[in-house]
């Protein structure tokens, strides 16, 4: 299957719970890795595969943020030995932020890298240090914190801030953050008429995005005509460096979103390039030249954190950059794919039931996970070594990519949906 030009918007749409229902099927297709799929068997029957799978499957018992059992013992040992830990998830599942908290308690990261933009991260750092949920902020900027507009995700952010862990966002400006970004621009703008104009635009764009969410359409305010972006540049050309940077970030994001309508692959590649640049630009604040990398915890959609060419059109994503950074410093990175087998998750229009039982890229792991009981932890590294040494045959190309890209797969038998606040 080839990547459809409209995919970039649809994939981004899965990052929030309130976007158009038509976004969901394409995003689900991407998550399953069908973009790289060749005809595949429903179940791998190679005896080496079956033997290694059984030998490297471990149970994990989860209760909130408390993890136990041989699966957790195995993970904990590797987390302690890996300064860079990357969690790749299927968004909207309430159990995953608790797992991330448990990982953070073991890792004790110096920084948390999130799939949000840097301006959202600034707000999240501030709000997570305050008591209570940021309901007033969410009323003003609906879904303005992306995933962290869900209660469980925000509690993860609060727990990280309680450990004095800074939250760093490296994504492009969010589809739903135009209103808050223009308010931020206005606050930093010195010229009174420009300040008033930016305030009025912030209110208008927020109203437009709220209506778009309610109607389930794709009329978001971040889609700006080139002439409108030029006008914004002229309006702010005499402002300080902070405003200038906001304008550049907004213009780039607008162009990436617009490009998706005609060139989906190029749009996606530009987004990934931007995230990798942002990660590199963020590192000097937390590391010293000639010193090891600080401990870092990443949590992104699973497609982003693979070691090599990703399940999405073979793009080398953030996970590959993290692996290379660790290699340069003679350190280790750990790449964990965590997903539910079935249950409920937050999606474009609130909570929805789902089943991943037919997903080809994870089929052997899903089949080995009962519908109730403990989580299942699969150590993929022995299977990867066998595959690379040609002692293992895998007919399912997405499954082979999973073996190459991730160190562990964690399957939750049944999930509940993340809650709004």
Automatic annotation (TrEMBL):
Leader sequence segment: 1-42
UniProt keyword terms in alphabetical order: Signal
Superkingdom field: Bacteria
SUPFAM superfamilies: EreA/ChaN-like (SSF159501)
Protein name, entry field: Erythromycin esterase-like protein
Gene source species: Hymenobacter chitinivorans DSM 11115
